[in-house]
Amino acid sequence: MDRPALSGDEVVVGLGAVCDLERVPRVGDPSVRFDIAEFVELDDGRPVLLRDLGFTLSSIRYTDGRAPEEDPTAGLSLEDVIDEVRATTGPEVRADGTVSDEEHGWDELALFVRDIGLTVTADRLKAVGYAITVTDRLRELLSRRDD
């Protein structure tokens, strides 16, 4: 996903994040690193990158504190990954430490969209909604482990 040249006349019709593995974890890795590409989808179907994010999960976290399994994704579910994506991209944490009641920082997201050259309001983005997806590679890894 990239940031193509935009005319400014494009319309945002989608907003979301795609999560993937930074790399397929190796046996014995103590953690797993995930990449998140936050994007808007334009009315012509093109996705445009807003920002790159990510998170790392310790393999111990999902094995009830036992020594890490050989597979660093042991105990990790698709729902766990989506929850972490939601936490990473989610609500605004204010300067006083309180967390916004909103699912996302819509005003902040609108600023990111304006930074790539498009005019959009926070209300418009909120109306479009926010979709979280994972790549086929990540989905396959987690489902293969569950078999």
Description:
- This protein has 147 residues and is an alpha+beta fold.
- It is built from 4 helices and 4 strands, in the order βββαααβα.
- Helix 2 packs across helix 3 (122-128).
Q: Which stretches are poorly predicted, pLDDT < 50 over at least 5 residues?
A: none
| Mean pLDDT across every amino acid position | 84
Major sheet: 4 strands, mixed
Q: Percentage of helical residues?
A: 25-40%
How much strand? 25-35%
Strand order of the largest sheet: 3-2-1-4
Radius of gyration: 17 Å
Number of helices: 4
Short description:
By secondary structure, the chain is α+β, with helices and mostly antiparallel strands. It is 27% helix and 26% strand.
What distinguishing features does this structure have?
27% helix, 26% strand, 147 residues, four-stranded mixed sheet, 4 helices, globular, alpha+beta
Write the layout of secondary structure elements.
Layout: E1 12-21, E2 31-42, E3 47-58, H1 78-89, H2 106-115, H3 122-128, E4 131-134, H4 136-146
